[in-house]
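hey m, so remember when u said the tokens were messed up on ur end? i reran from scratch. heres the input so u can diff it against urs
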Amino acid sequence: MKFGNAIKMCRVRKNLKQSELAELSGISTSYLSLLEQNKRDPNISTLTAIAKALHIPMSILTFLATEPDELSEISQELAEKLSLTALQLMGGASNEFA
């Protein structure tokens, strides 16, 4: 799982700067930067704080962090549709991800 990719995608989608999300999550901006670069693995309490700050369920953050090879039980088409739906639930469709 690449939580950093999911965190950054959600943060950008919510139009938040790293410093804003870090403050809302109660973590340092430098640590958030390391997370987004996948240089650190967050613990469950950090993930919970980030999801809460982003106003999204942990399940969506976890799904978006899932790598394609971890979704081998479902078709690529279904995985893409689920990802798009999750992103739409965060605040409307984006042509970038459609």
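this time it looks ok to me. The CA atoms of residues 28 and 81 lie 34 Å apart. if urs says something different then somethings off w ur setup not the seq
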